[in-house]
Amino acid sequence: MNIASVIVIDDDAFVRWEAGQSLALDILNGLIQAHRSGSKLSVDADYLETLGHLAVDSAIDPAFRAQLLTLPDEGYIGQQQSTIHVDSISAARRFLLERIAAHNASRFAKLYSSLSTDEPYDFHSAQVGARSLKNLVLGYLCRTGEEEHLQSALRHIKSAHNMTDEVGGLSALIHKESAAREEGLHHFYQKWHKETLVMNKWLHLQAISEVAGGLERIQRLMKDPVFNINNPNKVSSLLLSFGRFNLEQFHALDGAAYRFFADLVLDIDTRNPSLSARAV
């Protein structure tokens, strides 16, 4: 039995998930090598089709489907490399996400629509799983950059009756530069700017955004009233999130982020040595 078959038919859920992660890593490693050599990036359509079928298989629990459709993160991918080429890892993962999205856009759009409901919010496993899958496929749809999907995410934010969906909609928009993204960020800010803990999510999402100009965005947000350099949670949400999860822009070849963070750590250390240690 090949690894793709294991993902689809094995009786053990963990074995299926692990097989999916292993196959995704193999594909990502190939894409990383192609990017390093300057070759054209491509991915087998059979893999994209397999993920599409898994997404809409109603026999599989929605929460588990969301797990099967989630790629390894950049940090984990880097741990598997003998030499970490951050730009190639980011390019490979972004390409794979966009190819999965483009290949399955129609499928994902129908699935998103079927999972959207006016049912009152309740914290139980069925709803939690459905929200997880719904927000994941919305994120994939926004990866296509198609305006209809970006607008769906914006409506998702504005009509949300719970924080999971509201943040899920903003998370879906955050990586594509667009008017919908800016409107979503503004809407969230206007609604929640007096809620300190909620705004930590707003800061975090902008810190991890793949949209160009990450360092400049961080420096601008540090001047916003919702940020406080003396608040460890704010520092973690904005600054540490940028360093830990926006690897391509933090490790940019010009070294600008390194210089900025070196000065920042020294400044924070004068007031909170424990926090500065976490930033190193």
How would you describe what is shown here?
It contains 17 helices and no strands. The chain has helices at residues 3-9, 13-37, 45-56, 62-68, 74-79, 86-103, 105-115, 125-143, 147-159, 163-173, 179-192, 196-208, 214-221, 232-245, 247-250, 256-269, 273-279.
The biggest beta sheet reads: none
How would you state the average pLDDT, rounded?
Answer: 95
State the secondary-structure class: mainly alpha
H/E element string? Answer: HHHHHHHHHHHHHHHHH
Number of strands: 0
Note the beta-strand portion.
Answer: under 5%
Radius of gyration: 20 Å
N/C terminus separation: 45 Å
Determine the fraction of residues in helical runs and give it as a percent range: over 70%
Give the overall shape, derived from the CA principal axes. Answer: globular
Task: Give unreliable regions as ranges.
Answer: none
Number of helices, counting only DSSP H or I runs of 4 residues or more:
17
